[in-house]
Amino acid sequence: MQLHRHLLPVATAALFAGALPLPAQTAPETFPVGSLTFKRPADWAWIVPQSSMRKAQLSVPGTEAGKNADITFFHFGPSGGGDLDSNVKRWLAQFQSAPGTEKVEAKTLGGRKTTLVTTEGTFSSGMPGQPAAPMDNHALLGAIIEDPEGSIFVKMTGPKATVQAARAKFLDFLESARR
User: Fold this and answer.
1) Burial of residue 119, with CB atoms counted within 10 A of its CB: 0-12 exposed, 13-18 middle, 19 or more buried
2) For 49-86, how does the pLDDT look when each residue is reduced to its tens digit (9 = 90+)?
């Protein structure tokens, strides 16, 4: 009976460990997604992904305590992930956007064709098929990076002020990704 009492805290900690940022010393400095390797900024926390669909996840410190933004990475291989327009529409549909805030623009970042998607408003977060939790005054800054080995989807969502403050660093981060 003593053994079980000692295992319960370990099992409970293991259950919730994936939802917490890893300590800086165990978080990877670089990480691969598809054919690219990204270098994590030191102040962006590494989060163990909660879904097998996510290839990586980061937390960007908020402009105010508790107002962090999340960056999620997806890659489905050469024939996966759907077409560009479907993904853009799906991302924008997760928001009740403020008028005039939806923007889709083509850029070249790191020599790769990239589509940036931005909007602001009420974000309905949640896993597909589960109830969405509406969050007011949020923003999206997403990037779909085209690659012969399959598009890489990078999506930052969070409080509007945090996403806006991190925009330049996010674009530099994407620009610096290497093969």
Assistant:
1) buried
2) 988 999 999 999 998 999 999 999 999 999 889 999 99
